[in-house]
Amino acid sequence: MAEDKIRVLLVDDHTLFRSGIRSLLQSYACFEVVGEAGDGREGIRLAGQLRPDVVLLDNNMPGLSGREAARLLLEEAPETRVLMLTVSEDADDLIETLRAGACGYLLKNIQAETLVSAIKTAAQGESVVSPQMMGKLLSGVRGGPGRPASGGLPSAPAALPRNAAAPGAEAAELDKLSPREREILRFIARGQSNKEIARALELAESTVKIHVQNMLRKLNLSSRVQAAVFAVENGLGQGPEA
Questions:
Q1: Are 215 and 185 in contact (CB under 8 A)?
Q2: Dist CA 227 CA 232 (whole Å)
Q3: Distances, alpha carbon 64 to alpha carbons 57, 68, 76, 91, in Å
Q4: Dihedral sign, CA of 77, 83, 88, 93?
Q5: Which of 102, 106, 162 lies closest to 134 in space, CA to CA?
Q6: Burial annotation 71-100 (CB, 10 A radius, 16+ → b, else e)
Q7: Are 105 and 117 in contact (CB under 8 A)?
């Protein structure tokens, strides 16, 4: 039924790219593309009018940039989830986009199935960042409070956007994790996907997914981004498992 579909708004100044994304999403019964916009201001207007579940937003557009549009769009439609979909691998773009309130940052060179999964994840209220960008996000966390890394966050986790770091996850909670879950948490802190973790540990990808779900539940976290930040802050971001 239509009301069960994830309603998506596309905001990108490249008509051909929008057309490709629309065709991809329309091939899935779970999505409904409710509108398209060729610039940020039109995207903000349509978001307020259409109230989509998820907005796919380009960063590099003429006039209003994507990260500026994200901030204004979320003021207009705060219940909407904004996913930046861009070619920019710049750390400043990543950090400022998340600060603006976007729930995720994806690169346009991702696989189609990865994009589909990311939209579903965003619609469920979780955060998602392309694995290639996770290291740049975490570099800010490694800088520590008052000691920002180059292009990083001035402090962590306070400077992270909503859903990027959760209260209540303390170092003592690491004791709740099994040795395998701690091992997987290290891989997540390095920005590796479930598929990459499964390959490294010679496990089924479905098994890794279950371990990740259990780990998030035990740590009272809701996303891989939160888990990665937690791991780095508790010294699990580098080096092999002891």
A1: yes
A2: 9
A3: 12, 6, 15, 19
A4: positive
A5: 106
A6: bbbbeebeebbbbbbbebebbebbbbbbbb
A7: no
Question: Which two tokens mark 106?
Answer: 């994806």
Residue with tokens 């998602």: 128
pLDDT surpassing 90 at residue 144:
no
Determine the pLDDT at residue 28.
Answer: 94
Percent composition of the chain: helix, strand, coil (DSSP 3-state, to 5): 50, 10, 40
pLDDT value of residue 170: 53
- Non-local (6+) Cβ contacts of 147 within 8 A are none
Read off the tokens for 240: 């092999």
Phi, psi dihedral angles at 88 (to 5 degrees): -75, 125
pLDDT digits over 177-233, tens only?
999 999 999 888 777 778 889 999 999 999 999 999 899 889 887 677 778 777 877
Name the token pair of 150.
């180059």
